[in-house]
């Protein structure tokens, strides 16, 4: 399947100087990309436009202009056929806290038009995959944040969608739950297109086939992690200094990491220019790429 987004733009209305509603700044501007099978990481700082893009893609929000094409056909004209291909996990999923996990998921099957027997079989299968079989009779309100996120991904996977859209799926998870969730996404990636929006680099750095960097509504770069890292080669430096110089460098430059080594500090800096005479160029990582594009935000 090939998904093409062409020149998708959106401006929200805001109050103008005279108190009248006026077009505001672009939440999304001329967003153009093509997605095929695999995991795509949509990386952006808060307010970059990730949720806006996803909401337009899944049809919750209309765009001002642009098109979403699925294998060359306008998604808007595909209606139910398009929606049945999508599994969506919103940034703030609304769960019915008094439902048990099982009842909630069966209810979601009913909403998606999945026949009872088939739905129940798939729910049990998916609960096994996400390691929640023992929690199926628990009320949703009694689950931990990580367990709730796993229920969220199960509901998105009902109906075996070809496209899985995950908006900040690891928000509020602790590091071990985050790793578990990442592994799950890799498991589900086979034969699907997964779009995972996040501002957390580690959520996507091991699993994404490509990363899209969204800044102030514009797609500023897209490519494999290797490509994005190569693109900023020569702009990441390391230098070992005393505490005073480390503090000075921290004030003057964008520091992506600082590691104490006895009395001294190994400082990693993202800068277009040599930050200190004895600084050496090092290979960039995805954290450096993120810092490079979001310096000052
Ligand atoms: N309903 C709305 N009305 C007006 N402005 C909005 C609305 N929703 C979003 N915005 C603005 O549009 C821009 C993009 O917001 P969006 O929620 O898409 O970003 P995001 O990357 O998902 O951010 P976050 O990670 O914080 O959720 C922001 O400036 C936001 O304030």
UniProtKB/TrEMBL annotation:
Q: Which family does it belong to?
A: Belongs to the ABC transporter superfamily.
Q: The ABC transporter domain covers which part of the protein?
A: 3-241
The taxonomy runs: Bacteria, Bacillati, Bacillota, Clostridia, Lachnospirales
Gene Ontology molecular function terms on file: ATP binding; ATP hydrolysis activity
Q: In which domain of life is the source organism classified? A: Bacteria
Pfam (any one) = ABC_tran
Which controlled-vocabulary keywords does the entry list?
A: ATP-binding, Nucleotide-binding, Transport
Query: Origin organism of this chain?
Result: Parablautia intestinalis
For this protein, the record's PANTHER family field holds: ABC TRANSPORTER, ATP-BINDING PROTEIN
KW Repeat (keyword) present: no
Q: Which InterPro entries match?
A: AAA+_ATPase, ABC_transporter-like_ATP-bd, ABC_transporter-like_CS, P-loop_NTPase
| Family matches, as CDD domains | ABC_drug_resistance_like
Q: Write down what this protein is called.
A: ABC transporter ATP-binding protein
UniProt key word Cytoplasm: no
């Amino acid at each position: 399947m090939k998904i093409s987004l062409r020149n998708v733009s959106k401006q929200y209305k805001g109050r103008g100087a005279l108190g009248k509603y006026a077009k505001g700044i672009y939440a999304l501007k001329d967003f153009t990309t093509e997605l095929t099978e695999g995991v795509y990481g949509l990386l952006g700082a808060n307010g970059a436009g990730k949720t806006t893009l996803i909401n337009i893609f899944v049809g919750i929000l209309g765009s001002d202009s642009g098109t979403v094409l699925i294998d060359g056909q306008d998604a808007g004209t595909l209606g139910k056929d398009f929606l049945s291909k999508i599994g969506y996990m919103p940034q703030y999923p609304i769960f019915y806290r008094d439902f048990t996990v099982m009842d909630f998921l069966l209810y979601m099957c009913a909403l998606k038009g999945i026949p009872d027997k088939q739905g129940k079989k798939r729910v049990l299968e998916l609960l096994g995959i996400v390691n929640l079989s023992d929690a199926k009779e628990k009320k949703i309100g009694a689950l931990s944040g990580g367990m709730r996120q796993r229920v969220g991904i199960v509901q998105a996977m009902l109906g075996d969608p070809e496209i899985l859209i995950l908006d900040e799926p690891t928000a509020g998870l602790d590091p071990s739950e985050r790793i578990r969730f990442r592994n799950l996404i890799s498991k589900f990636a086979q034969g699907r297109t997964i779009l995972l929006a996040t501002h957390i680099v580690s959520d996507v750095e091991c699993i994404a086939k490509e990363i899209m960097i969204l800044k102030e509504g514009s797609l500023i770069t897209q490519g494999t992690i290797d490509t994005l890292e190569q693109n900023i080669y020569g702009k990441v430096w390391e230098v070992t200094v005393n505490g005073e110089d480390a503090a000075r460098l921290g004030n003057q430059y964008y520091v992506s990491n600082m590691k104490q080594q006895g009395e001294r500090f190994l400082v990693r800096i993202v800068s277009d220019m040599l930050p200190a005479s004895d600084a050496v160029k090092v290979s960039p990582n995805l954290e450096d790429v993120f810092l490079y594009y979001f310096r000052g935000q």
